[in-house]
Amino acid sequence: MTRHFGVFKFNPDVSNTKIAECFTALEGMVGKIPGLLTCEHGPYKSAEGLNEDFTHGFIMTFDTPESRDAYLPHPIHEQVKDIVVPCLERVVVFDFDVDLDV
Fold first, then answer.
1. Which of 15, 26, 27, 74 is the least crowded, having the fewest Cβ atoms under 10 Å away?
2. Is residue 69 classed exposed, middle or buried when 0-12, 13-18 and 19+ CB atoms within 10 A define those classes?
3. Which residues pair with 42 in a beta bridge?
4. What pLDDT is stored for residue 2 in this prediction?
């Protein structure tokens, strides 16, 4: 499996309603893009303070690295990016593979 996770810092003028719309759009890809199994997300919730002003995060799970690769240029993903990216001041995305046999 492949995990695709990211952290967002929304532009200061983006409302909570618009933030919710962004995450609804992300969730809406599950079941529409082959191999995208789950999408979890939420606001930063730690007293540790190491978020560097990022306010929200998400984790997507893909069945294979190839499914993740096919997701990147997928037209539905491009539509979601059109909703989300204009709302962001900063974004970091990081992927890694998970070996479930360990």
1. 15
2. middle
3. 57
4. 97
Is residue 102's pLDDT more than 80?
no
Place of tokens 């200061």: 12
Query: What is the distance between the alpha carbons of residues 29 and 10, in angstroms, rounded to a whole number?
Result: 21
Please name the residues in contact with 74: beta carbons below 8 A apart, sequence gap of 6 or more.
Answer: 33
Query: What token pair was written down for 97?
Result: 């593979």
Ordered structural domains, the chain, with CATH: 2-45+53-96 (3.30.70.100)
> What pTM did the predictor assign?
0.91
The CA distances from residue 54 to 18, 48, 73, 87, in Å, are 16, 13, 25, 13
**DSSP string across the chain:** -EEEEEEEEE-TT--HHHHHHHHHHHHTTTTTSTTEEEEEEEE---SS--STT--EEEEEEESSHHHHHHHTT-HHHHHHHHHHGGGEEEEEEEEEE--TT-
